[in-house]
Amino acid sequence: MNSSYSQSILRHNQLLWWLCVLSFFSVLNEMVLNVSLPEISSDFNQSPASTNWVNTAFILTFSIGTAVYGKLSDQLGIKKLLLFGIIVNCFGSVIGFAGHSVFPILILARFIQGAGAAAFPALVMVVVARYIPKGNRGKAFGFIGSIVAMGEGVGPAIGGLIAHYTHWSYLLLLPTVTIITVPFLIKLLKKEEIVKGSFDIVGIIYMSVGIVFFMLFMTSYRISFLVISILSFLIFVKHILRISNPFVDPALGKNVSFMTGIICGGLIFGTVAGFVSMVPYMMKDVYQLSAAAIGSGIIFPGTVSVIIFGYIGGVLVDRA
Fold this sequence. Notes:
The protein is an all-alpha fold and 320 residues long. Helix content is 80%, strand content 0%.
């Protein structure tokens, strides 16, 4: 009995460590190129608005993919989706590094990276909930949260150092480290029962088109892109109202507290993300700082403060 229990604990601990590796690199991949945006802009002779698509492309597929993977987890299984996400993420990294001198290929690679990396936050928490014993679940969530915060903190510093001493294109290869988790996850994750059900692919397409064209409008300010975006969203709303299993439950729109939180959270996150993207350009143009100095001396202290005040905020929320 003791031997079986010890093996079970060891298995859970090993699984937790490899989940932490995935969580760390999913956040690192999002943050690491930020400090190199001025250099990328200069290399391709692009405006900051166009260059920011290096980050926007990743975040778009990352955010949409997170919801998609979560919906698919019961129908296709966590193990298959997680391995698929790792492979797609690494594939995008290789494409980006090989074609980094061509701007459209770089943007395409970031789209692919985001589509793969989206599996990590969506499925890691589900794996913890299903595989880690209830008594250790809180500690596991807290540990993964700490690793994610560490990735946010060291990402800009690592990105700045690598870009300064080698070239920013090498940053695209960092996510390939996650390939080492594949054999361990194959061994540690059990075969799951698949639940049959329908999946709203049409709804995902309408929503994705609306988001992409809105972002294109924000970059180029072409009214035609805004019109397409609005029409896509209207069709999306009409679509989810008339089908039985929509991608987004329309009942959420009637929840005033939930919608208020979503809108406020979106405005806050958008402001912070825009500011973080703007800082490297300011530091480069005004103070002529290198990528290493921007990452380690400017953005890194800011991300550390986010970690500290995020923890304090969490404590205050628990006490409220």
